[in-house]
Amino acid sequence: MDGYAVRHTDLAGASAKSPITLPAAGLLPAGRAGVNSLRPGRTVRIMTGAPVPDGADAVVPVEKVAVHNGEVRFTQAPRPHSHIRQEGENFRKGERLLAAHTLLRSQEVGLCITAGVPRLTVAKRVRVAVLSTGSELVPPATRLRRGEVFDSNRPMILAQVEATGAVAVDLGTIDDRVHKLEERLRAARRQADFLITLGGVSAGDFDIVKLFLKSHRDVRLVQVAMRPARPQAFGRLGRLFWYALPGNPVSAWVAFDQLVRPLILRSQGHQNVVRRMRRGVCTSRVNSVRGLVDFVRARALRSGDGWRVQQAGPEGSSNLKSLTEANALLIVPESCERIEPGESVTFELLADKPETERAVA
User: Whole-angstrom Cα distance, residue 343 to residue 336?
Assistant: First the structure.
């Protein structure tokens, strides 16, 4: 604390009715040791971060004293060691600060520097390559022609990769030619640990991932019992782990969020890779499909008696606007075809700090 360093015994009995006055014996800025010791019956002005002089055992904050003509008046007796940090008080000699395989967050980095440890042996961050497929895809700044769409998937999934703490490797966009895919796969095997491809896994005649995988049995095309994002593929090409996601934007986002994100987090040492499931009351009618687990874009709002959950907007797998308006995924089990208002539902929050309201209509 900015204030005055004292010997607490010099201020024994100080009060508003019986103040004690001590002469000031200098100034101690942070980072300097201009006053090495404090004689009995004196005080010294001290700044936050400055070394406490020998003999001083308390600091009285500046706002609790009055100063006049170099004399400092104290109206209360401080406790010993008040407003003083002891050297090495954060940990003991020989204490283990970090265990092996600890994920280095900002607080672990700060702790190491505090302990005077400037270098650590660490594992490199996972590298995740992202590739879009589709002859219709063009970069965002392009003037669209008939039949073209902006490639929104790749930047979106690259941002999701970066949010996991992994290194995102942009492999760009290719048209629907298998030899182009083969070229980018060679690049991915050189540059990355994981590969995510977007599109090309459905039933179309030009779905190049599907065509390529006919002769590569280590990566399997699958139909996942979920909505959106039913068609997918996963497996390995040598040491490269490959996850192929659907081309519709919301499908790609949900598949990454539910299946790929936990995998990348676990590969980097995270233990809690699945979001907490919560319960709430649904305030809108939600239609689903029996036989598929449905991940519905939703708004979850906290009221006085719990959570209220409502569908965020249209459920089309290309509708990113409703995804931006959602802060939760309402999870409809595969045995359910419809949820009515007032029913209890399961959901998981996407936002770190969900909105709160007193009531939801």
Answer: 12
Q: Contact 222/270 with Cβ under 8 angstroms?
A: no
In this structure, is the dihedral angle defined by the CA atoms of residues 150, 156, 159 and 161, taken in order, positive or negative? negative
- Give the 3-state DSSP-derived string for 213-254, with helices as H, strands as E and coil as C: HCCCCCEEEEECCEECCCEEEEEEECCEEEEEECCCHHHHHH
Whole-structure pTM value: 0.77
Instruction: Count Cβ neighbours within 10 Å for each residue of 332-359 and write b for 16 or more, e otherwise.
Output: beeebeebeeeeebebbbbeeeeeeeee
What is the average per-residue pLDDT within 320-334? Answer: 96
- Tell me what pLDDT residue 283 has: 97
Q: All domains of the chain, ordered by start, with CATH?
A: 3-74 (2.170.190.11), 89-122 (no CATH), 128-267 (3.40.980.10), 278-349 (2.40.340.10)
Which residue type sits at 134?
G
Range of weakest confidence among 64-68, 130-134, 268-272, 342-346: 268-272
Q: Which bin fits 264, alpha (ψ -120 to 50), beta or left (φ > 0)?
A: alpha
Sign of CA dihedral 323, 329, 334, 338: negative
